[in-house]
Design goal:
Layout (H helix, E strand, L loop, with lengths): L1 H10 L12 H5 L16 E5 L2 E4 H11 L11 H21 L6 H23 L6 H14 L4 E10 L2 H12 L4 H8 L5 H4 L2 E6 L5 H9 L9 E3 L2 E12 L5 H26 L8 H11 L4
Antiparallel strand pairs: 1-2, 3-4, 3-6, 5-6
Helix pairs in contact: 1-11, 3-4, 6-11
C-alpha cells in the first residue's frame, strides 16, 4: 500500500494531455507543470528577491512541491501562487544564510535528505514517467473498454415528497392527466425541482440509490411508477427515454490509466532495486512492520 501511495505522490495527475496529442514525456512527468508546448525557457527570470533571481524552473519546482494541492487553485492564479511561494522561500533562505545556518548539523542532515529526494524524483521521471507512451495508454484503454459490460441508461424525472400519502395523491393527479413537470415544481421537496421540474437527465443504474434505481429501470418509457421509498423520502418516477450508455472515451480515462501504469511501473522498479540491495533493520519488530508496509518483494 505504501509503495502505491508513494508512486501516486510522485506521478501526480499529468496524463490527461496524452489524449490531446502532447509528448508522452511532458504528459507523464510529475516533474513538469502543465504548460504550452512553446512555453518560456526554464532559465527565464520571473522576479528577483534581494538581487537573487527566481526563474521559470523555480516555479516548476514549486509546482512539484505543491503537487495535487494545485488543483484547488484557480488556473489563472496558479502562477501568482507559485511565485509568492518562491518569494517566501528566497526571503527565509536569505535570512537563514545570514544566520550562518548552513554550518548547523540540522541543515546538513536536511540537505542530505533533500538531495536524495531530488535524485529520486529525477530518476523516477526518467525510468517511469518518461516510459509511459500514448500507445501503452491506448492499449490499456482498449482492454478496459472490451471488459466493460454493455449497460443501459435512462432519462428520468421524479417528484420527491415526505410521506407515502402525499406520493399517492400525486400519482392520482398524474393518472388524471396532470402535468408532471408542473407538479414537480409545485410539490417536490427536492432542492432545484422548481427549476428542473424534477428532471434528472440520463443515468445508469449504479448511479442512484438501489430502491430508486430498481424502480426506474423496471419502468417502460413514459410509464409512471407507484410510490417508491428511499432514505430521502417518497418518489414518483417517470422514465422518458432508455438507451445504451456510452462508454468512457480515451480522453476521459487517460489520466486514470496513466496513473495506473505509473504505479505498476514504479512498483516493478522498486521491487527490482529492493531485491538487488541489502536492507538491514536491526529492530526485528520494526523490520516486520516495514515489510508489511512495503509488501512482498515480487
Amino acid at each position: 500500500m505504501v509503495i502505491a501511495l508513494l508512486a501516486l505522490t510522485l506521478c501526480g495527475t499529468p496524463f490527461a494531455s496524452l489524449a490531446q496529442g502532447t509528448s508522452s514525456a511532458a504528459a507523464a512527468s510529475s516533474a513538469e507543470p502543465a504548460a504550452p508546448a512553446a512555453g518560456p525557457s526554464p532559465t527565464s527570470v520571473v522576479a528577483t528577491v534581494g538581487g537573487q533571481p527566481i526563474t521559470e524552473a523555480d516555479l516548476a519546482f514549486a509546482a512539484e512541491d505543491l503537487g495535487q494541492d494545485l488543483q484547488q487553485i484557480p488556473q489563472d492564479q496558479i502562477r501568482a501562487v507559485l511565485l509568492a511561494q518562491m518569494i517566501d522561500l528566497k526571503l527565509m533562505a536569505a535570512a537563514g544564510h545570514a544566520a550562518n545556518l548552513e554550518q548547523s548539523d540540522l541543515y546538513k542532515q536536511r540537505l542530505s535528505y533533500l538531495q536524495d529526494r531530488a535524485l529520486r524524483r529525477a530518476y523516477t521521471k526518467q525510468a517511469v514517467s518518461d516510459t509511459i507512451t500514448e500507445a501503452q495508454i491506448k492499449a490499456e484503454y482498449d482492454k478496459a473498454i472490451a471488459a466493460m459490460p454493455n449497460v443501459d441508461e435512462v432519462h428520468a424525472r421524479h417528484i420527491l415528497v415526505s410521506s407515502e400519502d402525499d406520493a399517492k395523491a400525486i400519482k392520482a393527479q398524474l393518472d388524471g392527466g396532470a402535468d408532471f413537470a408542473t407538479l414537480a415544481k409545485e410539490k417536490s421537496i427536492e432542492p432545484g425541482a422548481k427549476d428542473s421540474g424534477g428532471d434528472l437527465g440520463y443515468f445508469t443504474q449504479d448511479k442512484m440509490v438501489k430502491p430508486f434505481a430498481d424502480a426506474a429501470f423496471a419502468l417502460k418509457v413514459n410509464e409512471i411508477s407507484q410510490p417508491v421509498q428511499t432514505q430521502f423520502g417518497w418518489h414518483i418516477i417517470q422514465v422518458l427515454d432508455r438507451r445504451p450508455a456510452a462508454k468512457p472515451t480515451l480522453e476521459q480515462l487517460t489520466q486514470q490509466i496513466g496513473q495506473q501504469l505509473y504505479v505498476q511501473k514504479y512498483r516493478t522498479l522498486f521491487d527490482q532495486l529492493r531485491k538487488a540491495t541489502s536492507i538491514d533493520i536491526p529492530d526485528a519488530a520494526l523490520k516486520q512492520q516495514v515489510e508489511a508496509q512495503l509488501g512482498p518483494n515480487q
